[in-house]
Q: What sequence folds into this?
């Protein structure tokens, strides 16, 4: 029974998260509230993008033009969605002030479920048995992941070297994504690129926000913190452009599906590898992270494959459309 003793020792050593800092639990409801705002914000922004495309008579699938971006500012639905996304960001920042990155970011996947159900009401495509099972896999994996993170995640001091590493990675990522955008924006299937690119950039946004918050809390706000804010704003701007373009080529729940897979994965990798937020976790926790992540990823991609709107469109089924307020 030596192996059981080893596991128990690892568990005992790892259970330091909420026991050492119960305030971590405050971050969970804040992150969940942010997911709700994100869901409604995505739906309303998608409605605004679709309206602008119809008015302008031009598709934004290869990238929204400057004129289309300006027209978005005149659409009440898009403005309302932007305000909601602003509230979602505020909730996420507040959650990051209390809890580690690897605990807060995965909770954003809850917005996938809300957006899926909301889009079903708007589009008239009711969730199928396959899509409901996919949602169950997604949320089940996320719940397991968050539960483990709540017990083993710890706040570690952030060094200047770690900040420079994150900023250096962001510069490389922006250069690579810009190059790919120039090459792929007119290619078939570019929607996947827009979603993936936005997910990667939003992961850096969350990471840099966490760094700035930690520095403010510790009273160590120097030139590196200013660089972090600059990098954060740049990543937000480019990521938002990719998201708006993605709305022009796919339903909002599929956009959110991609974001809720890529954003948490990249953010968690940064938290684990660079910020060392699970440095004290034992093998059982690392194995649990991997297993829960695989389950959640399977659920999201399964939902994408079994999306009722895609199935009905491919079969040209007559669907009665729902509504979400007035068309604006």
A:
């Amino acid at each position: 029974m030596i192996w059981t003793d080893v596991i128990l020792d690892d568990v005992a050593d790892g259970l330091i998260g909420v026991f050492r800092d119960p305030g971590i639990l405050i971050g969970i409801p804040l992150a969940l509230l942010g997911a709700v705002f994100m869901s409604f914000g995505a739906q309303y922004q998608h409605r605004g993008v679709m309206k602008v495309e119809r008015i302008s008579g031009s598709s934004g699938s290869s990238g929204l033009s400057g004129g289309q971006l300006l027209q978005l500012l005149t659409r009440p639905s898009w403005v309302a969605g932007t305000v909601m996304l602003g509230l979602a960001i505020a909730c996420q920042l507040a959650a990051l002030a209390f809890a580690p990155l690897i605990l807060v970011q995965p909770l954003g996947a809850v917005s996938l479920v809300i957006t899926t159900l909301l889009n079903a009401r708007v589009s008239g495509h009711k969730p199928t048995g396959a899509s409901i099972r996919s949602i169950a896999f997604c949320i089940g994996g996320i719940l397991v992941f968050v539960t483990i993170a709540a017990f083993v995640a710890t706040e570690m001091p952030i060094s200047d070297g770690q900040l420079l590493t994150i900023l250096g990675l962001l510069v490389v990522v922006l250069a690579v994504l810009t190059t790919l955008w120039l090459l792929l924006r007119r290619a078939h299937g570019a929607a996947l690129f827009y979603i993936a690119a936005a997910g990667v950039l939003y992961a850096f946004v969350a990471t840099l926000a966490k760094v700035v918050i930690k520095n403010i809390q510790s009273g160590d706000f120097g030139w590196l913190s200013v660089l972090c804010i600059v990098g954060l704003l740049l990543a937000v701007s480019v990521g938002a452009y990719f998201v708006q373009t993605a709305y022009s080529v796919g339903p909002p729940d599929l956009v959110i599906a991609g974001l809720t897979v890529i954003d948490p994965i990249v953010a968690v990798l940064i938290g684990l590898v660079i910020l060392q937020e699970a440095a004290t976790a034992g093998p059982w926790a690392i194995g649990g992270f991997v297993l829960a992540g695989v389950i959640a990823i399977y659920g999201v991609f399964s939902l994408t494959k079994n999306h009722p709107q895609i199935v009905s469109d491919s079969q040209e089924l007559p669907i009665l459309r729902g509504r979400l307020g007035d068309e604006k």
Observations:
- Confidence is low (pLDDT under 50) at residues 10-17, 310-327.
- Residues 24-56 form the longest helix (33 residues).
